[in-house]
Amino acid sequence: MSTQTAGQQRGTRFSTFVRATIALQTTAILLQSVSAGMLLSTRHGDLLHSAGARVMYGMTMLYLLAAVLAWRPGGASLRPVLYATGFLLLASLQVVLGIAHVLSVHVPLGILMFGLSLLDLNRAVRSATP
Questions:
Q1: Rounded to an integer, what distance in angstroms lies between the CA atom of residue 79 and that of residue 42?
Q2: Transmembrane segments in this chain: where (predicted)?
Q3: Are 19 and 123 contacting, i.e. CB atoms less than 8 angstroms apart?
């Protein structure tokens, strides 16, 4: 029978929140690639891609919030905060490039973001398993 202190329970709860937000962010980026294809093939694809961009940006901000909460009150590592900050910077650049219609950088950056998000999700899941 193991007993956890309140700080350990809080840290576990926050790390679960961090993993969930990374999974949501990765899913949002994947759905952005689907909506990008719809942007090319349907009349209302631009609306869906624009809404998806807002959702993806929101998920990235939520990931940063979760990482900060896991780090400061939860006592977790600073590394997820740095990763989340990097993702927020990439997402901001992605939004600017999308609005400016610089597709030669916008599309590869989206692919890079999806790959990095998958790697981050893999890291977070592996660190959670004993």
A1: 41
A2: 20-40, 52-71, 83-116
A3: no
pLDDT band at residue 63 using 50, 70 and 90 as cut-offs: very high
Q: Is 100 helix (H, G, I), strand (E, B) or coil?
A: coil
Q: Which one, of 93, 29, 82, 95, lies nearest residue 59 by Cα?
A: 29
Identity of the amino acid at 67: A
What tens digit of pLDDT does each residue of 13-53 get? 678 899 999 999 999 999 999 999 998 899 888 999 999 99
**Cα distances (angstroms) measured from residue 121 to each of 10, 65, 75:** 21, 16, 20
How many CB atoms are located within 10 Å of the residue 98 CB?
A: 20
> 8: which 2 tokens?
């350990």
